[in-house]
Amino acid sequence: MMNRTGHAEGGEDRIANRDPTKHRYEQMLASSGTAAVCAGADNLIVSWNSAAEELFGHSAQHAIGKPLSIIIPAKLRAAHDAGLARAVKAGHARLAGHSVDILALHADGSEMPVDLSLSMWFEDGKPMFGALLRDIADRHSAKKRLEHLAHCDTLTSLPNRNALHERLAAEIGHVPCSLLLLDLDGFKHVNDTLGHSVGDALLTEVGARLTRAVGSAGFVARLGGDEFAILLSDCADPLRVDALATRIFEGLQPAFELGGQSIYVGTSIGVAMSPQDALQVELLLSCADLALYSAKGEGGGTRTFFVRAMQNSSEQRHRLGSELRQALSKKEFELWYQPQVRLADNSLSGVEALLRWRHPKHGLLTPETFIGVLEDSVIAEEVGTWIVEQACAAAADWDRLGVGALRVGINLFAAQLRSGQLLNVVSAALRKHGLSPGRLELEITEKTVLQHSAVSTEALRRLKDLGVGIAFDDFGTGFASLSLLQKYPLTRLKIDRSFVDSIDRKVGDAAIVEAVIRMASSLGLTVIAEGVETAEQERALVRLGCQEAQGYRYGRAMPAAELVDAIGHTLAVARGGFVYRARA
Known about the structure:
Blueprint: H1 12-16, H2 20-31, E1 35-40, E2 45-48, H3 50-56, H4 60-63, H5 74-90, E3 99-105, E4 111-123, E5 126-135, H6 137-151, H7 161-171, E6 177-185, H8 187-194, H9 196-214, E7 219-224, E8 227-233, H10 238-252, E9 256-258, E10 261-263, E11 266-274, H11 281-297, E12 303-305, H12 313-329, E13 333-342, E14 348-359, E15 363-365, H13 371-375, H14 380-400, E16 407-411, H15 414-419, H16 422-433, E17 440-444, H17 446-449, H18 454-466, E18 469-475, H19 481-487, E19 492-495, H20 507-522, E20 526-529, H21 535-544, E21 548-550, E22 558-559, H22 560-570, E23 571-574, E24 577-580
């Protein structure tokens, strides 16, 4: 029998006759911070170190000689016994050499997740089994919080777009259903005049009123901004939908008392039904969106059911696509740059390149007005190549002007990942302008990479190996974010502004951001927060360990020449280099 340190009972004489290498190995396990447990083919424990005592709550004196079932939940014991018998008979263990997550049993009867690494060897011809075990409860807790984040809108606590997608996917084609899309009439004015904090409070109250109006009859979700959705399962009755729309209009009619003011907003509603309008999730959403667009075109405050004639809007997208192709050939696109700073000292660390369209009739357009069409157009890859070239050229110009070695972030289109030319395009631009790979950061979103191929993954991996940064943009807003962290060769996470807005006021938002930062740290990733506007948000991010930030607090996007001028006015020479002065 062996005692808790792994030594054979019976004193130093017996130890002296043993293999000294084996003795040192046992001493190492005895003092290890990782729980180490050994058992024989009879399932009885023969070794139990101090870390195992702490992890499982059993003393070595109590554990040694007992069956392994003292740390195995009852529901798993039959499987364990069968696996042990197979290993003894076969002479090898299937799990040996692998690390797996399993549930273990504490002395107090509670179950806990542990990481198990199993080994098998033979002593005097008899099989022995050893296990190294680590408590991973914190990791599981963080994962659960992030999984909740992936399906919950943190502002309103309603299900988010991803949750709606999953619900639709589970029901469409199986039961009739009706989808209502809503956005608020007058919300932009509230946001612009009263500020984001009042706007956020308004969205929360609207979510609550919608939930009351729908009751248990439907599934309410917030899609983002001032957009909401309601799914009625097992319902293809327009009269029932119309009655719900009436309740929604009535529910939103009373004033919202916020910020000491009475605020009035209405809503427009677009309705699509399955199976008659669509039998695919995206198509049903598109039909409801077309109906919503029609409702708003009628002046708002009404509900509109989808009809096939609304698909004529696709012709409008086609016209916009034609204008975009002309914009590229006529050099109407511009790159503007938004500052990014290190929170430790507010030094300027880089910029994000953002696309603008100088439209001949409508003036300067931001991406919200055209990016959706551009992403799906035949010129997406060509525009993406132009962006890489322009950003590298600007960075080289800044070097010559003495601005400093700024990192430049570039948003990729899905078409650039699909084509197989990304590695060549980026490498050629870096060589042409004499930039080191570390000066460039490529930003990918979940929407972009979900259209990935093995070729694109390899291209990103090779670019990362060269030293190019790979950032995951809008992290936390998509349902596949957690798995994609493992699949893609990332260097940075960009926390979406929706989680930063209330970080200084809501404990829940701060906890979520903290979980993201800790997870990123464990994966060797840096973190930058988007949408930082106030000193309070900045202080909260610093307290949580966030390394970098960007947002209106540090500057809006501006043309390259204006950025150089702004840096000249806002940078002060410091011993460590340039320091960016954030707005007070």
